[in-house]
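User: Predict the complex.
Assistant: Input components as received:
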Amino acid sequence: MKKRVYAFSEGDGKNKRLLGGKGANLCEMTQIGLNVPPGFVITTEACLEYLADKKLPAGLMDEVREHMARLERATGKRFGDPANPLLVSVRSGSALSMPGMMDTILNLGLNHDTLQGLIRQTGNERFGHDAYRRFIQLFGKVALGVPDELFDAEFEAIKHQAGVAADIGLSAVHLADIGERFLAVVRRHTGKPFPEDVYEQLEIAIRAVFDSWMGKRAVDYRREFHITPDQANGTAVNVVTMVFGNMGDDSATGVGFTRNPGTGENEMFGEYLVNAQGEDVVAGIRTPKPVHEMATEMPALYAQLVELRDKLEAHYHEVQDFEYTIEKGVLYCLQTRNGKMNAQAMVRTSVEMCREGLITRDQALLRVNPAHLEQLLHPCLDTSHNPTPLAQGLPASPGAASGRCVFDADQAELLGRAGEKVILVREETKPEDIHGFFAAQGILTSRGGKTSHAAVVARGMGKACVAGAEGIRVDSRARLATVGEVTLHEGDIITIDGSTGRVYLGAIPTIAPTFSEHLRTLLSWADEAAHLKVKANADTPEAAKEAREFGAVGIGLCRTERMFNASDRLPVVVEMILAPDVEERKAALDKLLPMQRCDFQAIFTLMAPYPVTVRLLDPPIHEFLPDEHSLADEIDALRQFRRVAKGRAAALSALGQAVETDGVGEDAVAAVIARKERLLAKVRELHEINPMLGHRGVRLGITFPEIYEMQIRAVLEAAAECVEAGVAAAPEIMVPQVVDGAELERVRAMVDRLRQEIEASHGVRLDFKFGSMVETVRACVSADGLARTAEFFSFGTNDLTQATWSFSREDAENKFLPQYIGSGILEDNPFEVLDVVGVGAMMRMAVEKGRSVRPDLEIGICGEHGGHPGSIRFCDGIGLSYVSCSAPRVPVARLAAAHAALLNGG
Amino acid sequence: MKKRVYAFSEGDGKNKRLLGGKGANLCEMTQIGLNVPPGFVITTEACLEYLADKKLPAGLMDEVREHMARLERATGKRFGDPANPLLVSVRSGSALSMPGMMDTILNLGLNHDTLQGLIRQTGNERFGHDAYRRFIQLFGKVALGVPDELFDAEFEAIKHQAGVAADIGLSAVHLADIGERFLAVVRRHTGKPFPEDVYEQLEIAIRAVFDSWMGKRAVDYRREFHITPDQANGTAVNVVTMVFGNMGDDSATGVGFTRNPGTGENEMFGEYLVNAQGEDVVAGIRTPKPVHEMATEMPALYAQLVELRDKLEAHYHEVQDFEYTIEKGVLYCLQTRNGKMNAQAMVRTSVEMCREGLITRDQALLRVNPAHLEQLLHPCLDTSHNPTPLAQGLPASPGAASGRCVFDADQAELLGRAGEKVILVREETKPEDIHGFFAAQGILTSRGGKTSHAAVVARGMGKACVAGAEGIRVDSRARLATVGEVTLHEGDIITIDGSTGRVYLGAIPTIAPTFSEHLRTLLSWADEAAHLKVKANADTPEAAKEAREFGAVGIGLCRTERMFNASDRLPVVVEMILAPDVEERKAALDKLLPMQRCDFQAIFTLMAPYPVTVRLLDPPIHEFLPDEHSLADEIDALRQFRRVAKGRAAALSALGQAVETDGVGEDAVAAVIARKERLLAKVRELHEINPMLGHRGVRLGITFPEIYEMQIRAVLEAAAECVEAGVAAAPEIMVPQVVDGAELERVRAMVDRLRQEIEASHGVRLDFKFGSMVETVRACVSADGLARTAEFFSFGTNDLTQATWSFSREDAENKFLPQYIGSGILEDNPFEVLDVVGVGAMMRMAVEKGRSVRPDLEIGICGEHGGHPGSIRFCDGIGLSYVSCSAPRVPVARLAAAHAALLNGG
């Protein structure tokens, strides 16, 4: 005959399909020597038979009785025995955990007679009656289908009658009365008396568990989470002996962690209560004691607890979160599961458990979720006081920051220099605000998405940023912002949380990031395990320094245009753009040359001997010019000023009065107007309909070769200076927006010419690489052609995603992407999680074609996906050489790279 | 011994490598029985030997003498014989034609003695002396390296001395004098007398031909045109008996075509001169006669000519352009080559030669270049008077048109209704100008490229358009335009040529298109030969009618947004966009529904039983709104108006006068301002950074499902009405901008729901197809997913090219693409010629993936490349089912599709 019931000592701890997750666990715990209260599991197969035949399988109850007899033998108690009653719990348990599926029935086996036995055993009449009335209600509801409200109404009636507000005010007599009333409720509702026979109780409970599998809650849950019969089919029934921690001073109840889940320290952590049940902790009647006190209070029991802890870790190789009860000096382990810990604890326990030999290095690495590392690398808000957010925006750059509101970059710089902490608040930011970013603790904008200027620049700098907080209306002229009823004036203190997108009034304390010794160790292991190298995107010497601190082995993306935006350079850049001919443009570029050279020299030196990949100018040059509208407004204002001034002068003159000067001469105003008009004309000339797909990248390098020439010269001259200074600089020149090998050949020819010239003039030999961004679809398709000239590729997956999807990121994120994700058309935002189907196919094609021509082609990724763990795994899978991401994400990427190598194999 | 010299009767007419192109032709002509003046070819191998050894191969001149003897036998003349001299021409000829490589030496064999023989033979002393002095100069220059200027100086001296201005004024005596002076020039320059020995002349000439192969002109030419030794190595020498058409009234010279190259008519065409040499025609001394006059003037010779013509066509199976000379009643054919003809003649001759059995149908089809058909389908300018263009723009939509300038669409409509022909002249056009397009003959803009609104709409309508004529400054407020010094006022007549981009002042006559019976026949053959079907892009019933006339077998792209732009609909569309909620939006859509249904019903009916593919709304909705700047300007103006009016009222009131009304109440102005402000706010809200990649296509359909629902309902209700009317409508619903199968599933669900409803309410069964545009890269990559829902694909290669290249077409064509093409980085504009490498790879992928899921998937192309012959061949090669292009290009595409099938095979 088919075996349908397994004692915990019999069942296969790995067979969750047959025994359910909980049942299998109890079997495993029992068999590894933990003192689990005796019990047994009725299989999921029995459940399916029951559901198919609409009746319990023949012989099942006989098998159950046999196992109950075993429990009686093990405990010395008897089921239904008024003198020394055996009580059990009955609960469901399928292969997959389905939280809240069916309530557990506790204390099954209680009736009028056995209640007396329980009271005698515990010496606690109130507890006994309370346990009984709880059993009746739960059994009534779960197994007999009596509505909860009927019981609640009786309970309230007694409380009202007794004149007490809280349950705790009820005496044993009240509770006994409630029990009787509950029995009457069941009798009225079901038309039958509450079953006094304990086996009848048990059989009804087993049927109820089986039935629950097809109940609405369970069916909905399985549909909602797409659980197929393949994954879980039917539920098992767990029948477990009840144990009581309230049987005297040699009894107790408690919960514990095998290590400290807050710090990861290797010390038992938890709380216990002597002579108490779990409910007492929940009810808050008594305050539990920290577990270490047990060592002095109950040393023998504490020794048992320590032994339990050791067994748990030795078996599970993982920090355990366990529940236990001590009944009359005997420790029972009721439940154990992997402990949930914060990132710091995960890191520390990983390193320490590995050192202790409990887990391997690979396991230590795989235990820690790379994304969680982020917690450790940015200050985060201490929200233990549950502050109410003032507004909600997009989490655009992680980290938290408090400071005074300022509404323009100049003010930010002014206050910042004066040592104030400030938050730059703008409708949106522009390149000319860059000095404000340097001065501010964080940036808050009311418009723009996760790739708005503010977001991208802040991420690059590792500063907190909340973008697109649309509830805030910023009026920078009036120097204030309003959020509903609240008005923020300049100088008011706010706090932003770039990890959640929340904005708070006032200063919320922050928790500083910890880059602990344990983290350093774990990351060094990660570097050994990984195939992918991790570099950083960094545009300044400061960022380069930070990148090295975070363990980047090079700079994978150094954006030269960021350097153009520095406040001392932007005017020269504008001069260059306004130049009417090549000669004047070259004159302006000659001024920029020493500035860029100096930047490069500093960055190369800081990063030596690691490579620094310099990307030549990428954005359309109109991005460096002011906004068309503001410029037109300014011109209007100046014209009006001039008209008024003229009118005033005329009037005074007519009155025969001397005309006073305004301090601003007519000519000066006219000159300013003329200059601004010239600028406006240029802005209009350069206007593009789709700047993302416009005159940018190498297209600029082809049409205005003098710009690229200046930049290449700056890189190579800086490299020459490094060689002269004995610094092992490793520069790489990278060309953006390439679509065809012919473009690369043009730029390469320029590079070769300049190299010869600079090697000759400096008398040194330059060592550098020349490569291509791969960020257009056509570059992927013609990657073989590119690889004939390029010595390395770097995927720009931001642009590549835009091109592959025909989605402009900012337009998409503001207009339709939320609805696409919300309605399930897309699972993820492809700008955050690399689209393996589309963009991934392009990348794979580029890798294959590129390496078909140049087998040792180095290939990296420098788009934002370079810091995303799932995307990193894909990059490892297609054989990339490195990923490059913003400096603060470097540790995340290093760990993710190790995961990728371990999970992808090879 | 190696044979180095071939008589024309011996040489292999196909062996151009050995005999050169010209030599092989002469051999072929001789051997097919044409009476070619006797001659022989010295091989290219002999040339290479000469160049390698720096001397003539041993025995070569002996072989030449032997062949000269044969010529003497054939002609009865003798080389160097003063009584009856044999004269020859010597010319080069390599395997590839290299025009103007070396001048031909004529009349070789003349000297003091033989000159007298020539004079006797021709009875023309002046001719004899002229021939002699020409020979001395040519031989001196070509074979002896005497600079031309030396001869010219002598010539001018004599002319001066004789007091004549033109050569024709010189007498025989003068010419004899010139001959003597030329001989003296040669003697002075070379230090040797001019060779009198005719074999010496011949040998020198042969060496000169061989040497010319390594001359600077030849070497440069071969480098310039990348001619490798593989293609042409060494030159042959052709020695041909001179024949003279000026030996009396039984002699003549002429040129002819075997058929009329202007009309294609099967009649001999050409001119002749009795008793004349070719030079006489060139000198313009006498007017040649049309060839048909020869039939009466010289019937016997005419009969010979007719025989020649028949032999030529019978052998070459192609219209021939030939030269002949009649010497004393004997017709010699000097040269023949394929005749160059205009498109009309090509079509007619193709059809007729096929009918005559001269060529096969396949040959008839392949003879005609599809691109040339365009000439036949648009009116073109009669520029025979060489008018001077006023300005130059981009050829944006082919055809020519004259009319009065108008500077806005309303005026265009007004004048157009009054029967005036008008040209709409704008800086650029917007959707609200659409009624002006209907009314105008053509469109001229000073801004925008080949995909500007003006260009695209004009092409769609088949109207002439010149776009981006930057030399023109349009001031639509002042109602004038200036081009340099010229000012165009409204009503001035101009002519635009959309095929060249030229703009002219005044009316230039146009030549109307001819859709001849021959063209119809040729296209019907094309349809039989082609695999690809040809459909048209058409958005209106008028365009549908035109499409059928041009032979389209369906509409491959019916853009519903064009219907939105009609002047009676745009206000409703704006109302729909401004709707604050779904309810009001639906109310506006309810007004659009009957309009769209009516359009569809008309188009389906016109096209039945051919399919009509309706594309659901594609452009971002902000395209239907007015321009932000103009709106802001209008609001400013209205506000100022209100201020002035208020001030005036206040002033009048203060003076105690009654305030007059302005006719526009304060409230009315305020209401207009408020409405415009609401519109402006919406325009700003909908603003997109990269509209090409923005909130458009199916993304609108997902976020505003009510818009797509209205359109689908309009299609299906129109289809139902057709069924009720017994019309075999074949509608197809097409979804634009798709990136993922999930999008299609959403729209398909909507379609299915509406179908059920409409089938039920109309009591009919609807038959239609549902498909997807493939115009994003991701759609190509996930085409298998798309094909699970889509029953057909249509490639939108305009957008796909933009996405693949990351080039915004308008920005690229205005900013950097010209330089890319000019500097050789790109060979073609990828928006005109399908980029087979990049876009082609995406298309191929989509075809393979799509058909892997649905083998019978119908796949077409509706981008502009659908009308480009080279691109059509690619489409045929990857197995597309159809191409769709603008109606006037349908004939081009039909022929190109036949070419593709014939050339691709299969």
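Chain A is about 50% helix and 15% strand.
Let me know if you want any component modeled separately.
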